[in-house]
Amino acid sequence: MTHVVRGSSYNGETGHIKRLPNELLVQVFHAYDARMEVALHTYAPKNERCYRSHWLPLMLVCRHWRALGVSAPSLWQLIEVGKNKSWIELALLRSGSLPIRLLFTDKYHPSQSLFFLLPHTNRIQKFIYQAALSHELVASLRCLFDALMPVLDEIEILDPSHPFVAPTFGLPELRIAELSKLRTLRLSFVPIPLDANALCKLHCLALEGPVFNDSSVSYRDFLRVLQGCLELKELRLRRLLSRLPNRTPPDHAITLNLPKLRKLVVWDLPSVTSSFLAGMHLSPEVTLRVCHPLARRLSDARMVDAFPSLLPTDRSGIPILQSVTSASINCWQDFDVALKGTVGAAKVSLKVVGSKCDDGSFYLDAALREFRLLFAGAPIKQLEISGDLDTVSSIDDHLSFLDGFPALQTIDVTAQGSPLTFLLALARPSPFLPSDASDSSEPSGAGSDEQSSERIVCPELRSLTLAYVDWQQGLIEALVTVLRRRIDHGLPKLKKLALTLSMEKAGPPEEVGEQLEDTLGLYEEELKSLTGNFEWWSAD
Fold first, then answer.
1. Distance (Å, rounded) from C-alpha 76 to C-alpha 53?
2. What are the residue boundaries of the F-box domain, all occurrences included (predicted)?
């Protein structure tokens, strides 16, 4: 980046190039460091968050850049607190009198005393602790919590090495009422008072586990305080609601209407989560993430209505369900099964998480039914599906699902099993919509006219991808038949058709490969004529 000045210089030359002014060059350093700032605002801890400021290598560019890096206090405001105490002290010195943001990572060992920070507590603006919680840490934290921190606006304390596990020792209480600037509070098991005056100022509140210092704080008490948190933009509650006493019977008289809320995350038991959401009034712009964490594997859980159980029966207070334009059904080999949807910047995610990595593909059949129920009427244009297609044995099941989303333009399927019944459903008429029948006084036309009057499902479909599905005899022939039938019914041909075929279950590799080559040799040109772009690959 250069600053070009046109005109005469002292030596009479034009087009003289000067270096960037220092104030602009500092902004370049800050932009280079932007990734760290993004990481600070991610609640779930990730290994990528454990690094120093990215701008440091820029000091090697030249002597001027090094001098600027050393002398600009604003570049030293973000301080990673790790095992190198000398580095921390250097950053404290070079940051001058500016507010500082402390990021503790897993490089920090709790045996290191934090007393050297006491002279700087009046400058601590952010306190982000992502290291192991231990007995040794208690004294250090207590000395900091007892000090005045007049500019502190963000606190996060959690142990990423043992998520959701309460420490076996007591942590010092955080007196949030004395932190007048506090706007962001993320805590795991750190005790705080249920102080309505302090909490009502927050923009972001994330609580995990039992955090209130008074064990008698009830579910009703917490909801009443939340009613006054009108400045909240983000609310995350993980395994908190189910640990509050007096949750039954659910008190639907207490409703929550948080006008500035844009993100709501709830991890808890389905009965608790659905009851909590029943009292919420969410705007269409709110991102909603709901999760049921299991104490066992997905395949051992005997799940029934896994996703509807996370939401109230009356879902009118969650309008995003009927407005998503892109969505996914994820039942793959992972820790979880999930339904997700997106509209604009808002997202909805319903997830069931197992205790260990497991194959959740068995739940696809149920997930399709539950997705159709929960997202009924949504104008979904893009859909991703993953799971085991063999669990959906009936064409009618696929047909009922596809018929619920007539606006679909793109379908991407990543699945094991046979795609045959799914493909055949794409050539079937809607079981619920009436045909475009002619006037009853007119004589019926030829058979082809009667065919064209049928309402085939997914009339807007333009792109279809089938990845890692099983190759079988008759699959390509069926695909050609489906494409022909859709065109015969007046639907435009697909702009894109992509196949990735798995040969693993089809037989001996050489024999199966020859069969596939022969079949595609017969139909490839026709497939290309029936689509705008046809591509295929073998996965083995």
1. 9
2. 18-77
Contact (CB, 8 A) for 360 and 354: yes
C-alpha span between 94 and 79 (Å, rounded): 11
Length of the chain in terms of residues written: 540
Whose tokens are 């094991």? That residue is: 416
498-527 pLDDT tens trace: 999 888 776 677 777 788 888 888 888 999
Q: Does residue 182 contact residue 211 with C-beta atoms inside 8 Å? A: no
Question: Are 81 and 105 in contact, with CB atoms under 8 Å apart?
Answer: yes
| Contact of 190 with 211, CB cutoff 8 Å | yes
Spatial separation of the C-alpha atoms in residues 339 and 361, rounded to whole Å: 13
Report the distance separating Cα 310 and Cα 266, nearest Å. 10
Rg, the chain, Cα only: 30
pLDDT in tens, 405-460: 999 999 999 999 999 999 999 999 887 655 444 343 343 344 445 455 678 999 99
Instruction: Return the H-helix or E-strand segment holding 487.
Output: helix 475-488
What is the Cα–Cα distance from 399 to 331, expressed in whole angstroms? 19
Neighbours of 215 (CB within 10 A): 9
The secondary structure of residue 242, as a DSSP letter, is: G
Which two three-digit tokens encode residue 69?
């890096």
Rounded distance between C-alpha atoms, residue 376 and residue 322, angstroms: 7
Q: Which residues contact 38 (CB under 8 A, 6 or more apart)?
A: none
159 phi/psi in degrees, rounded to 5: -105, 105
DSSP lists the bridge partners of residue 207 as: 187, 237
Residue 161's contacts (CB-CB under 8 Å, 6 or more residues apart) are 106, 132
The CA distance from 370 to 168, in Å, is: 40
Give SS3 for 496: strand
- Full-model pTM: 0.84
**Residue 142 Rama label (left phi>0; alpha psi -120 to 50; beta):** alpha
Rounded Cα distance between 194 and 16, Å, is 63
